[in-house]
């Protein structure tokens, strides 16, 4: 592994940091207060080339290496975690899923508009009464002549209220695999959306989607081979981890600045041993998470499987960010809990990454199984217990 980046890639990251700090970061507090992303944020993301950062040149990307991609992600995550979630869910997770499971030529009609910023995508998986237990999912795709129809409801979905396209994980009626990805045009009749309130990442569009016999082109229904499902999710676990690292770094910077400038008992607050210990721990844990994120991103971009690595990364990075924002609040005192202060916002944002994507304890089980320990469930398949191994025909 070589984490060294060349001068050209360094310039790409520096340009992103400059653009995002000047515009998106300056609007982060107002966006959080309003509970909506400003249109200017999306224009800044598109104009910066960020949406193309995760893909090879032959499909319209920038051809960046894995470490540079991770650095690009952190640049946006530090500026505004809500904007980061919205943009990266569409341009990284959804595009990678379409490219991985769809046809590389046929589905350029879907991915090209996502990379240009003309359209936005979402990834509906969980449902109103179901989290990571896919065995309870009821959204179903069924054949109807030469087309398919999708019915059901998905909830707690990033970009649900603003997306043009959905990469829906669904049951597939009458097919041997039992599951599929359906690439659904959300502007078709039968689709309705609703917003859902949330404690953190307030500016991120978040809500539910209801499908009432929505037509899906047969070309856009792709069966899922279950053993590949966790690797398809790895992009999501990686980007959520980097969101957490960006939040932690921003909270650390705010705490460090406060410790240097705030006077207490005639000297800077940072003179106190407890404050120094907190800041030193924050620095070490953030850097440890970042290095593991670089390792995951480097391997994944090279086409290698990273299920075990990212299974370690996501619980560590997301829970580290919660610890870091808590320590930052301790350093800042009441300022850290004052609405309008960046740390107060970050303190609410951090827990959203812990619960997003997949339960931390389930990921720990994947890591433990990779160490050779017995599977927790009777079936040694890593999907057992998630419901992905169940036959939809029995429902």
Question: Short description, anyone?
Answer:
The chain is an alpha+beta fold and 395 residues long. It is built from eleven helices and ten strands. The chain folds into three domains: 7-119, Butyryl-Coa Dehydrogenase, subunit A, domain 1; 122-224, Butyryl-CoA Dehydrogenase, subunit A, domain 2 (Beta Barrel), CATH 2.40.110; 227-370, Butyryl-CoA Dehydrogenase, subunit A, domain 3 (Up-down Bundle).
Description:
By secondary structure, the chain is of the alpha+beta class. It folds into three domains: 7-119, Butyryl-Coa Dehydrogenase, subunit A, domain 1 (Orthogonal Bundle), CATH 1.10.540; 122-224, Beta Barrel (Butyryl-CoA Dehydrogenase, subunit A, domain 2); 227-370, Up-down Bundle (Butyryl-CoA Dehydrogenase, subunit A, domain 3). It is built from eleven helices and ten strands. The protein has helices spanning 7-22, 28-34, 39-48, 66-79, 81-101, 108-116, 229-261, 273-301, 307-332, 342-355, 360-370; strands spanning 121-122, 140-144, 147-158, 165-172, 179-185, 191-195, 206-217, 221-223, 263-264, 267-268. Strands 1, 2, 3, 4, 5, 6, 7 and 8 form an eight-stranded mixed β-sheet that branches. The longest helix is centred in the middle third of the chain and has 33 residues, at 229-261. Mean pLDDT is 91; it is low at 391-395.
